[in-house]
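Weekly sync, protein design subgroup
Attendees: M.S., D.O., the rotation student, P.L. (late)

Item 1: inverse folding check
M.S. brought a backbone from last month's batch and wanted to see whether the design step gives back something sensible before we order anything. D.O. pointed out we never logged the input encoding, so this time it goes straight into the notes. Structure tokens as presented (146 positions):
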């Protein structure tokens, strides 16, 4: 099972979450490529059995608009049937961006795993453990199901 973990991080919070996701996925037996958003595109999607996407909430609880959103919008037409997990950090709001993102992925036909992981501000050890567990669950439940 080959997993891509694709993320954008402005402050390092979502990057820390991505690193913890990678640890959990590897412990569960997946081969993992940890990629920043500029290292991933629609042509690479077919190289993986599933993708964990990480992006913090920005502005009015939206995905980062300069780099992440354009990459993700390009992928949407290819997400049907793809196991997808979502994660990100936020500094305000209620997590609406994650609910919207999950719905968007579902509307694209992706096989969205769980509710995603959101962490307010800097992830502490409990938050990082939540990331590890989510990624391990993704590998055991979403990837092994394909």
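Designed sequence read out in the meeting:
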């Amino acid at each position: 099972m080959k997993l891509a973990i694709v993320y954008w991080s402005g402050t390092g919070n979502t990057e820390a979450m991505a690193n913890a996701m990678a640890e959990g996925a590897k412990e569960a037996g997946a081969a993992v490529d940890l990629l920043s958003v500029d290292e991933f595109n629609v042509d690479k999607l077919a190289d993986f059995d599933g993708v964990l996407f990480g992006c913090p909430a920005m502005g009015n609880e939206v995905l980062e608009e300069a780099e992440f959103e354009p990459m993700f919008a390009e992928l949407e037409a290819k997400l049907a049937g793809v196991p997808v997990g979502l994660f990100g950090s936020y500094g305000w709001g209620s997590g609406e961006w994650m609910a919207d993102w999950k719905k968007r992925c579902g509307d694209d036909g992706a096989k969205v795993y769980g509710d995603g992981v959101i962490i307010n501000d800097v992830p502490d050890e409990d938050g990082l453990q939540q990331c590890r567990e989510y990624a391990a669950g993704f590998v055991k439940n979403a990837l092994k199901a394909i």
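Discussion: Residues 4 and 51 are 5 Å apart (CA to CA). The longest strand covers residues 83-90.
Action: P.L. to compare against the previous round before Friday.
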